[in-house]
Each structure stands twice: as structure tokens, then as C-alpha cells.
Amino acid sequence: MAIQWFPGHMNSARLKAAETMAAIDVVIELLDARLPEASTNPLVRELRLQRQRPCLKVLNKADLADPQVTRAWIEHYNRQPGVRALALSCRKPGDVARLPTLCQALAPHRNDNVKPLRMLIMGIPNVGKSTLMNVLLKRRIAKVGDEPAVTRSQQTLQLDVRHSITDTPGLLWPKIAYASDGLMLAASNAIGRNAMIDEEVATFLAGLLLRRYPALLASRYGLSAEQLAAVDAVSVIDRIARRRGLCRRGGEADFEKAAKVLLQDYRDGVLGRISLETPATRDAMLADEAAKPGGAVGTPAGEGGRELPAATTTEAADGR
Ligand SMILES: Nc1nc2c(ncn2[C@@H]2O[C@H](COP(=O)(O)OP(=O)(O)OP(=O)(O)O)[C@@H](O)[C@H]2O)c(=O)[nH]1
Ligand SMILES: [Mg+2]
After folding, report:
1. What does the pLDDT average to over 153-182?
2. Considering its fold, how many domains does the chain have in total?
3. pLDDT in tens, 221-273
4. CATH assignment of the domain containing 128
5. Which of 280, 281, 284, 261 is nearest to 271 (CA)?
6. Which atom of ligand 1 is nearest to the CA of 171?
7. Are residues 49 and 149 in the same domain?
8. Whose CA is nearest to atom 1 of ligand 1?
9. Residue-range definition of the domain harbouring residue 32
10. Which of 90, 96, 139, 193 has the most ligand 1 atoms within 8 A of CB, as the residue to mutate?
11. Which atom of ligand 1 is nearest to the CA of 126?
């Protein structure tokens, strides 16, 4: 089942963001470092290109992502003309504090009290936009929470006389083109609970972990490498249920509860540092999709294309 979630408040948030875009200087596009392309909202790109606003791509939650893969993503993005990217974690306030300077480089004309730099934070739900704003402000002004759609309206605050920052509600888009993107977004808690089926999302996640991070699965759930080598995604969840004593009446494994355990463990980062996609897996997915009968011709990972004002960039892939 294709995952889609575009509740009414997102449509009004999109219209409001389009309006605000006229009165800001730089977009801080927050992506999830564990799934940078799947968490890239085409609406954000469309809105900022309409107004020709420069953009800093920030791969947030880098503390949860595989550092080697994050490094590959940063190199990948920074190779593209007009794209500036860095990775960070809101858990490291020192890294976040560098953002105004990096944004300033993208809009060098906005650099005094008369023309303060106006930054707009945009991104998918639950990616850490409000947390980022609170860290920059060094105050808990915006409400945050580990669920999608916590912020429902825009809020602009003055960082100091030279900088203002606007937090926006998380935005998805009306049609997520690739099923695996919907599943990655759902696994990472960017999709409303009613728009997904935990068991389906957890089965996708288990399959991905089995292929890419079997050692992390083995150590978290006390399964041997041999056991894992012989099972599929569904049986991984079954085994988690049995290891954790999650049973229904009659002794049958409680698949639903075990699915929730796996999803929560991934979201909390207790499995270890995991990236759901790499530049190479992204390209392979797009090639597969394009080869399907009637399949869309995929754009390669990243946006490519336009020249934007040059900025100094830093590559803090570790994010811890
Ligand atoms: N591990 C980790 N967690 C983070 C980071 N940044 C934010 N979070 C957590 O992510 C969750 C969502 O944060 P919010 O700031 O509410 O996210 P948001 O993008 O404003 O979400 P919406 O308002 O729903 O669109 C919270 O539980 C934060 O503590 C980070 O860099 N690392
Ligand atoms: Mg928020």
C-alpha cells in the first residue's frame, strides 16, 4: 500500500510558506541524515526556486545516522552546482551555532541592523525544525515532540539585531512518488500514525536492516549471525516477538507488538547508527523504477542544476 499523508493543515502551511518566502533571504532546508533524498520535499524546492532563494541543506539527526554514509551524502551534495550541504545534530549546540554564519555567506547583502538576515527553516514533519530554532535561540520557545505535526503555525523570532528565524509546520507533499520513500519516512516517524500500518513499515525496515546492518540486529535482539542469515524480514520480527516474550493468547508471536518494538528502537537510535539510503542505493532504486514498464525516468539523487551564491561549507559528517 502506497503511503500518503497530506492533512489539511499542510496545505495551508504550504500557502503560508509561499507567502513568507517573499520576505526571507535564505532557506534552511532540514533533511533527515538517515534518509536525505527520501526526506527531500519537492514542494520546498519548488517554493524557493519560484522566489530564487538560496538554500542551505542541513542533514539533521546525524547522531543517529551511519557516519560513513553521511560523509558520502555530503560529498555527493556538495559536488552538485549550487547546492551547499552540511550534517549536524541538534544535540550538539556548538554545531548549530555555525548556521547563521553559513547562511550569511549565501546572502552577503543582508548584514546589518537595517537589513537583518532573515532565515526560514523548512522540512518534513519531525525532522527537528523547532528543536533547531530553540537551540539557536538558546531558549525553549517552540514546542517540540517526537511525533509528526507538532508545529501547526509559523513563528518568527529575532535571534539578535542582525538575524531573524522562522519556524514552519512540517510539510509533506501530495503524492510520494516511490513506495520505499513513503516507508522510510514512516519508519522515521514523519508520517501520521493513521496513514501507516506499523507491521508493513517494520517489515520493510527489518528487510533493510537484514541486508545492510545484520550485526546491529543480531546484537540488539540476541540473534546469532547464522540465525539471521537464514531468515527473511517477517521472521526477524517473529523472532523479536519470541525473544521479548511478546505472545498472543495461545502462544502465537505478537507480530504487531514486535513491529512496534523494532520501529521504536530504530527511532530512538538504540539499534546503533543507521542510514536507510546511500547515494548508491538511491541511484539503484531510481534505475529499478525507471526500468519498470511505464516507470518514470528518475532524477539522479540530489537536485543538481542551478547556480546559487557561493557559501563556505563545512563537512561535519560525524554529528555527535
Ligand atoms: N537524535 C536526535 N534527535 C533530534 C535531533 N533534532 C531533533 N530531534 C528530536 O526529534 C523530535 C522532533 O523534533 P521537533 O523539533 O519537534 O521536529 P519538527 O521538525 O519541529 O516537527 P514538526 O513540528 O512536527 O514538523 C524531537 O523528539 C527532538 O528531540 C537531532 O539532531 N538528533
Ligand atoms: Mg515543529
Report:
1. 96
2. 2
3. 998 888 888 899 999 999 999 999 999 988 899 999 999 999 999 999 999 99
4. 3.40.50.300
5. 261
6. 25
7. yes
8. 61
9. 8-167
10. 90
11. 21
